[in-house]
Amino acid sequence: xxxxxxxxxxxxxxxxxxxxxxxxxxxxxxxxxxxxxxxxxxxxxxxxxxxxxxxxxxxxxxxxxxxxxxxxxxxxxxxxxxxxxxxxxxxxxxxxxxxxxxxxxxxxxxxxxxxxxxxxxx
Length: 122
Description:
- By secondary structure, the chain is mainly beta.
- The chain has strands spanning 3-7, 10-13, 18-25, 34-39, 46-51, 58-60, 68-73, 78-83, 92-98, 111-112, 116-121.
- Strands 2, 4, 5, 6, 9, 10 and 11 form a seven-stranded mixed sheet that branches.
- Strand 4 (34-39) and strand 5 form a beta hairpin.
- The chain starts with a strand and ends with a strand.
């Protein structure tokens, strides 16, 4: 059974930082491109950042470029998202996913985590 478990979310003030982690089990982690997606209330889910299986190629949404950094540790079956200079508009439920197209980071993937809340106060 595939499981993707997100951690590291929470409440932070604008300008602060958070690091999300996603630990995978039940799949061969280094065979999958991975991604972070988010969904705010009343909005569609959007791709935040994606990374290919080796970690050598990444995608970032324009809204997070220069502020967020995606990385992965295949030895630990873990995906990360370092989020700096957070803004209130970054407030959303963040989801980890396995299998997205990392070049376009569309919301189509093989497996999804349950999500974790990130709230940025102004």
